[in-house]
Design goal:
With 209 residues, the protein is α+β, with helices and mostly antiparallel strands. The protein is built from eight helices and nine strands. Bound molecules: coenzyme A (COA). Coenzyme A binds next to helix 2, strand 5, helix 5 and helix 6. It catalyses: N-terminal L-methionyl-[tubulin] + acetyl-CoA = N-terminal N(alpha)-acetyl-L-methionyl-[tubulin] + CoA + H(+).
Length: 209
C-alpha cells in the first residue's frame, strides 16, 4: 500500500517503519525458521521471491505492512536499521466489496523480544492506524489452533472467537470497532507519534549535535 510508504509510527518500545527492500535480507533469514513458518502458516520463499513479495506488499492497495523496530536500539544512530528489526505487522483488506474489513497479522520474529508486551503494543498501534487512516471498522485474526500465545494475545485485546475451521485448523477472532472501542483505542494510543519516515532516516544519518 502506498499510503504508509513515508510513515513511521513511534510507540513506547517500538517504531514501525514501512517495509523496504533494505529489510528483505533479514526478513528472509527469519522466514527460514520452521517454527515461524508453522506459526505464521507461511511457505519458505527464495530471496528473489521475498523481494517480489516486499514489492507487492508495498504496491498493492489491499496490503499495508510495517516493520517493527526496537526503539531503544534504533535511537542509537550507530546501529543499522536492519539490526533493529524485531518483526512485522500487516493489515490485509480481504474483501474487495468491503474495504472496512481488515485482517491483522503480526510476527515478533526475534524470540528474545516475545512475552514482553511488544505484540500487544504493536497490535494496538496498527489497529489505531487502520481505524484512523484506512477507515477499518472490523478486524479479523485467523490463527492456527496450536498457536495458543497468539490466540491469548488477541483475546486479551478483546477480540471474540467467531468460528473454528477444522479443515485449516484455524480459529477466527474478530473485533468490531464501535464508538466505544474507537474512543478507548485512541485514548490508549494517545502517545503514539506519527512522523515522516524520510525525515527520521535523514535525522539518523545526520544526528543533531
Ligand atoms: C504471538 C505474538 C505476536 C505475541 O506477541 P508477544 O509480544 O510475544 O506477546 P505480549 O508479550 O504482548 O503478550 C500478549 C498476551 O499474549 C499472551 N502471552 C504472551 N506470552 C505468552 C506465553 N508464553 N504463554 C501464554 N500466553 C502468552 C498473554 O495473554 C499476554 O498478555 P498479558 O501479558 O497481559 O497476560 C508473538 O509471540 C509472535 O509473533 N510469535 C511468533 C509468530 C506468531 O505466532 N505470530 C502470530 C501468527 S497468527
Amino acid at each position: 500500500m502506498k499510503i504508509n510508504e513515508n510513515t513511521s509510527l513511534e510507540g513506547q518500545r517500538v517504531v514501525l517503519v514501512p517495509y523496504n527492500a533494505e529489510h528483505v535480507p533479514r526478513y528472509h533469514e527469519w522466514m527460514k525458521s520452521p517454527e515461524l513458518q508453522q506459526l505464521t502458516a507461511s511457505e519458505p520463499l527464495t530471496l528473489e521471491q521475498e523481494y517480489d513479495m516486499q514489492k507487492s506488499w508495498r504496491e498493492d492497495d489491499d496490503k499495508c505492512t510495517f516493520i517493527i523496530l526496537d526503539k531503544q536500539r534504533w535511537t542509537d544512530t550507530s546501529v543499522e536499521e536492519e539490526q533493529c528489526m524485531v518483526g512485522d505487522v500487516n493489515i490485509f483488506l480481504t474483501d474487495p466489496t468491503d474495504p472496512s474489513l481488515a485482517e491483522l497479522e503480526i510476527m515478533i520474529a526475534e524470540p528474545s523480544y516475545r512475552g514482553k508486551g511488544i505484540g500487544k503494543e504493536v497490535t494496538r498501534m496498527m489497529m489505531c492506524y487502520g481505524v484512523t487512516k484506512l477507515g477499518v471498522k472490523k478486524f479479523q485474526a485467523k490463527i492456527g489452533l496450536d498457536n495458543q500465545v497468539s490466540i491469548a494475545m488477541f483475546k486479551k485485546l478483546d477480540f471474540q472467537e467467531v468460528s473454528v475451521c477444522k479443515v485449516f485448523k484455524e480459529v477466527t477472532l474478530e473485533m468490531t470497532v464501535d464508538e466505544s472501542v474507537r474512543t478507548r483505542l485512541l485514548e490508549d494510543m494517545a502517545d503514539m507519534k506519527e512522523r515522516d519516515y524520510r525525515q527520521t532516516c535523514s535525522d539518523r544519518r545526520e544526528p543533531v549535535s
